[in-house]
Every structure is written in C-alpha cells, then in structure tokens.
Design a protein that fits this description.
By secondary structure, the chain is mostly helical. It has helices at 3-22, 28-48, 53-75, 79-94, 96-119, 123-128, 130-141, 154-174, 181-203, 207-240, 247-278, 287-315, 342-355, 357-376, 383-388, 390-398, 407-431, 439-463, 465-487, 491-500, 502-523, 526-537, 543-585, 587-605. The longest helix is centred in the C-terminal third of the chain and has 43 residues, at 543-585.
C-alpha cells in the first residue's frame, strides 16, 4: 500500500486520538480502542515506511498514549484524594434536595421541641428521660450544669461517644430504605430533642452556657446527623422516584451516592467525639475560645458542604463523577482484564452474585445448618452485655458468624469462611475462562485457605476486643489472599498486587463492611424477633421446648444472613485482584501488543 493511501485511510482515527489525548475527559473504552489501533498502524509503518515521517508521527502518538495510560495507573493511588476533592462534593450537588429536606425537617422538629417545652414543663422529661432530667437539675443546683461531660474517663468517653455518634448516623441512614420514613422519624426525634434541650436551659437562664458547651462539639455532630438524614432520604428516593430508570437501577445509583455521603461524615463524627471527650469537659474555658472553635467548625461545614461544591460546579470539577448502573434485561459481561474503579468492581460483584446465587445459596445453606447445630450447643444469651455494652452486643448479634468466644465456634467459622471463599473463587476462575480444575487442586486450595483463615480467626479468640479490631481491619484481605491461593499465583505476585493498591483494597473493604452492616442491620433487627415470636405463638408444648426451637431458628437465621455476605466480599476482592494484577504487570496489555506483533510478522512472511 502506498504511504499516501495509508495516511488517507487512517488519518481520521489519528486525529481522534490527538483530540482525545489533548482533551480533559478521556473515555477509558475509547482510549483503549484507539490505542490498540494506533499501535497496529505503528507496527505496519515500522515495517513498510521505516524511514518516513508517518512512522515518527505515529510513534509520537503511541508515546502519548503510553504516557496517559501510565498516569492513569498512577491515578489509582490517588483515590483517597480524589474522593474528598472531587467525588464527594459532586455527590453533595446531586443530593442537595434531600439534604435541604433533612435540614428543614430537623429545624421544624427543633421548633416543635421549643414550643412543646414552653407549653408543658414535663415535656423535657418525656423526651430526655426522668433520670437525665434529675441529674441535670442536681448539676444546676451544684453550680455546674454541664457536669455530665466530666463524669467518664476521657479515653473511655471518646470511644463511647464516637461509636454512639456513628451508630446514630448509621441508623439514620440505613432506615431510609423503608421509603425514607425511618430516616424522617429519626430526624424529627433528634430535632425535637435538641430544641427541647436548648429551651429548657434557656428557661433556667443558662442558654449561653449550654450553647457554648454543647455546640462546641455539636456543630460538627449535629451537622453530620443532618447530612446522614440527607443520605437516608437519598437512599429511599431511589425506590420512591426511579424516574426514567428501572427501580433497580435507580436504587443502585441512590445507594452508591448515599453510601459515599455517609463515608464523608465518618471522620467528622470522630473529630466531634474527640472534641466532646477532651475539650467540652473544660467548661471553665473562656467563652471567646469556645466561640472561636464553634465558628471554625461552622465555617468548615458551610465551606466544604455548601460553598466548595457550588464553586467547583461553576468552575468545573477536575474529574467528572462516573457512576455505573445495572443493565436490565441485557446479558452482563465481566471484563477480567480491565483496570476498574470501586463502583465497577461492586457492579461486577453484584452481577456475579446474582447469576450464581443458586449455587452460592446451596453452599451457604449447608454451612449455616452445620454451624447452627454447633452454635446451638454453645449458645448463651448475653442480656447483661446488652445493658453494659450495647454497641458491642449489637455488633456481636449482627456479625454472629464470627462471634468467636468458644473453640467450636472458631472451628465452624474457619471451615465456613474457607469453604465459601474457595467455592466463590473457583466460580470466578471458571467464569474468567480457566479450564476445569482437578479435585486435588480444589482440596489443596481449601486446606491452605483453612490454615490461613484459622490463624487470623484465632486473634479474637485469644486477644478478645483487640483481636476483633485486627480481624475487622483485615477481613477483606483474607479473601484477597484466599483468591490468590485458589488461583495458584506465587505469593510474591499476590503481595506485589496488594502492595500496588493497598489503599484501594482497604477502601473497598470499608465499603463492603458498611454494606454488610446495612444488610445485617435490616436482617438482624427487631423484625426478626417478631418472626420468632410469631413462630412461638403457633407452637404448642412446654415453654422450655418452645424456647429451644425459637433459639434454634434465631441462630440459623443470624448465621445464614452473615454467611450470605461472605461470597459477595470474596467476589469483590477477587475482581480487585484482577484489576491490581493488570496495574502491576500489564499482562493483558503485553498480550495485546504481542498479538499485534505476531499478526504483522505473519503478514510479512506471507
């Protein structure tokens, strides 16, 4: 082919390549397609136009492609920074209506609290409890109305407040799934409580004292609860107002947006808890210092959640918000060679889970039945713990499958986790095109995973609360390593991939943990106890036998719900494993270039 004809046939895609490389927004799919075509043309020009300018021109374009792709790989390390600078502010813009409704409901409820307290002197006791009101009255008589903030040890108080704040925000958010009604009820209650509290102290001529103390930490804390309310309303809006999407697509989009919004307030709640524990207790600090901290907190909330998102929207965000949605009634293909973000990984995971749910459920059911038998004989009700440590009791009931307080539970949890990790990993490998794996290899993979998981699960068994913390921080990594074991990659390859994207893996683990909490909160809730009570009402016999049957049902239900989460976690970690391997080793890119080179070599020989 003459050079002029070669240029005429391909110049349009070369121009497209230049425009794409020079533009700010680079479509990954288009980038990949044009890159492959330009490399193909470059290989052809190197063969037939070795000393011509077209080869130099194409070589420059190809170099620019490599530069962009290399930068994109480096950008994977900046997800944390991009989340705060670009992604979260865009989500605030998307959710502005829900956030405004949450604020309006809260302020209206606060006004109701003020009016109710003004009309009825007994109303504060009804809202805040008789015990709290009696304590407050005693503190006022002693001349220290804010003494409640001085009772506990600072570290103990910080932990208690932070977990309570996160728990309130979590409940405010997750109850939005009930068509937003649950979120609205919590916002109304919190608003009435704040209005009642402040007006009661105003009646005692202590408004300035209480406001300076409470809003020292409350500026961040209450603002975060309002934002959590907006997230809950966003979650429910996907079901209520699907628009042009299917209800499933709308719910998926709203769930992802709202979940990221809740992540955005988590560090703010931690800071608020630290302020309340270590600073609020010093009520004798000059009002000027308190007012300065309150103003700084308010400026941060207004600046980051109101001014900055609007300013960035007018100026243009550095990176547009990419959201993926399920394709209803269309075959879904998972690309195992593609470098993916968290949204794409979660989308692939849910679709994989949906397609293989039948087989996954059968294995989950088997392990849950075995676990129920073992747990039943070691099950003890911990009513005392529910009063002394309600957060620990609540988490223990939700994550019932890893409540590793006895050796039989440790053994069952290890077998269950290793079994489901191995089964899920094998399904993913089969889906990716790997040929049938022999029974010997499967058994060997299960045994290796069992050893690794047993060692990790032994941490809470021996070290208690500290061990549970370590387990929570490494739970996603367990499945990441388990997939590497099943895939039979060298340990060095698994470690290299993990080191390349540890932040991304840890971030995905946090998303999965929060998703699991949402699911388990809805499953292991008072509703479950209503079901067990309904079963008890329909059984006849001795009270002791009926209690044993309901205990058995309760244990089975908790284990089944927890075990259903494990394959989803394993699938997500497997997909990020593939993505990180491509970032680290570029195997698919090298294979594509090798295919192009081979094709050109055959063309020359023929």
């Amino acid at each position: 082919m003459k050079e002029t004809r070669f240029v005429r046939q391909n110049k349009e895609k070369w121009l497209q390549s230049e425009q794409l490389l020079e533009g700010e927004n680079k479509d990954p799919e288009k980038l990949s397609t044009l890159f492959t075509q330009v490399v193909d043309d470059l290989s052809y020009s190197q063969t037939y136009y070795k000393n011509r300018s077209v080869r130099v021109y194409l070589n420059n374009i190809a170099r620019n492609f490599f530069s962009v792709l290399s930068n994109k790989r480096r950008d994977n390390k900046n997800h944390f920074k991009n989340f705060w600078i670009s992604e979260l502010p865009q989500i605030v813009i998307y959710c502005r209506k829900e956030l405004l409704i949450s604020l309006a409901v809260f302020l209206l409820a606060a006004a109701i609290g003020v009016l109710s307290t003004a009309r009825d002197e007994n109303f504060p006791a009804y809202i805040m409890g008789d015990q709290y009101m009696e304590m407050t009255k005693e503190n006022i008589k002693k001349g220290d109305p804010m003494a409640v903030y001085k009772d506990q040890n600072q570290l103990e108080m910080a932990w208690s407040i932070i977990t309570n704040n996160i728990g309130v925000a979590f409940r405010t958010y997750v109850l939005g799934i009930f068509l937003s009604i649950g979120t609205l009820l919590i916002m109304i209650y919190n608003g009435i409580m704040i209005g009642t509290f402040q007006y009661y102290f105003a009646q005692q001529d202590l408004l300035a004292t209480s406001a300076m103390t409470v809003w020292l930490h409350g500026t961040l804390e209450i603002s975060s609860i309002v934002i959590a309310g907006g997230a809950g309303l966003t979650l429910g809006s996907g079901l209520l107002f699907p628009g042009t999407y299917t209800r499933l697509q709308a719910f998926q989009l709203s769930a992802v947006r709202s979940l990221k919004l809740v992540f955005g307030i988590a560090p703010i709640l931690v800071i608020a808890g630290i302020i309340e524990s270590f600073l609020t207790r010093y009520t004798e600090v000059p009002a000027f210092i308190k007012l300065t901290l309150i103003i700084l907190s308010a400026l941060f909330i207004v600046g980051y959640f109101i001014v900055y998102p609007w300013w960035r929207m007018k100026k243009g965000f550095p990176e547009p918000l990419h959201e993926t949605k399920l394709q209803a009634n269309k075959p879904y293909h998972i690309n195992y060679a593609k470098i993916k973000n968290q949204a794409e990984i979660l989308g692939d995971s849910f679709n994989f889970y949906k397609r293989n749910f039948g087989l996954i459920f059968r294995w989950t059911l088997l392990f849950s039945i075995i676990g129920t038998v073992v747990y039943y004989f070691t099950y003890e009700q911990e009513l005392l713990l529910s009063y002394t440590d309600p957060m620990g009791y609540w988490l223990g009931e939700m994550f019932f499958g890893i409540k590793l307080d006895t050796l039989p539970k440790l053994i069952v949890a290890g077998f269950t986790t290793a079994g489901l990790a191995t089964v899920t990993s094998l399904l993913i490998m089969k889906d990716s095109g790997v040929k049938e794996i022999t029974a010997g290899v499967r058994i060997q993979a299960f045994i290796k995973n069992l050893v690794i998981i047993a060692l990790l699960f032994a941490m809470p068994f021996w070290w208690g609360g500290f061990g549970y913390t370590l387990l929570a921080l490494s739970f996603g990594l367990i499945f990441f390593i388990a997939f590497g074991v099943v895939k039979r990659d060298a340990f060095q390859a698994t470690w290299t991939a993990l080191g390349q994207g540890f932040g991304q893996v840890f971030g995905l683990q946090v998303v999965l943990l929060f998703t699991a909490m949402v699911f388990l909160f809805l499953a292991v809730s008072p509703l479950m106890y209503l079901y067990t009570e309904a079963v008890a009402w329909n059984l006849s016999g001795e009270k002791g036998i009926i209690e044993k049957i309901t205990y058995l049902i309760e244990i089975f239900f908790k284990l089944l719900m927890f075990n259903l989460i494990l394959p989803l976690v394993c699938a997500s970690m497997s997909f990020i494993y593939y993505s990180l391997q491509e970032i680290s080793f570029a195997n698919e890119l090298k294979l594509s270039i090798a295919k192009i080179t081979l094709k050109k070599s055959r063309a020359r020989n023929s």
